[in-house]
Write a structure and sequence with these properties.
The chain has 202 residues and is mainly α. The chain is 72% helix and 0% strand. The protein has two domains: 46 residues, Orthogonal Bundle (Arc Repressor Mutant, subunit A); 149 residues, Tetracycline Repressor, domain 2.
Length: 202
């Protein structure tokens, strides 16, 4: 668990980056927002880059762990995909400042950290791919490439997450997740097989 002061600094940095942009924000701005001296701030983080990386690391690890837990949990493949979509879009809605920062991308981050991000992306992709493979194996989905379905699924999530960040009032995460999964799985189910309300709960 992070010390309370470190949490306060990270939240202040997140808010400051969101309001001023990463390049315009200064360590002095962040220290002022966090209610600490610049010297104290530098004891915790040596640079804006270190702050940004820790914000990404903390938030994205929580996001990825949540998705993996749903993927490995009970229920049909369709139900788990819907739950994963609802979690992802709900996460964006509840953490709009963070999601907006992620949408902007890893600005100027070290190559080592970019490799970490790439590995995290692989974990998310694998979680979705495994659920899709379960669906194919159970006959829930027609024979298809689980990896391709995972890419389509995550592409939809990322696009809708951006819409939620910039216009949250127009999007209900749970309803949007259901619509997204219904749309994707319309092309994944075997001919003649349709979604049955509540059937994914088994």
């Amino acid at each position: 668990m992070q010390p309370p002061k470190q949490d306060r600094i990270l939240q202040a940095a997140l808010t400051t980056f969101g309001q001023r942009g990463f390049h315009r924000a200064t360590m002095e701005d962040i220290a002022l927002s966090a209610g600490v001296g610049k010297g104290t701030l530098y004891l915790y983080f040596p640079s804006k880059q270190a702050l940004l990386e820790e914000i990404f690391r903390t938030g994205l690890e929580a996001y990825t762990t949540g998705l993996q837990a749903i993927a490995s949990g009970p229920g049909s493949a369709a139900r788990r995909l819907e739950e994963m979509a609802a979690f992802a879009l709900g996460f964006a809605a509840a953490n709009r400042e963070f999601a907006g920062l992620v949408q902007e991308g890893p600005v100027g981050m070290r190559e080592e950290f970019k490799r970490w991000l790439w590995g995290l992306r692989g974990r998310i992709l694998n979680a979705v791919r495994e659920v899709a493979a379960d669906g194919v194996g159970a006959g829930e989905f027609r024979p298809l490439d689980p990896g391709l379905l995972a890419h389509v699924f995550l592409g939809g999530i990322h696009s809708l997450a951006a819409a939620i960040v910039w216009d949250a009032a127009r999007h209900d995460p749970a309803a949007t997740a259901r619509s997204l999964v219904d749309l994707i799985l319309a092309g994944a189910r075997p001919p003649g097989r349709h979604a049955v309300p509540g059937a994914g709960a088994s």
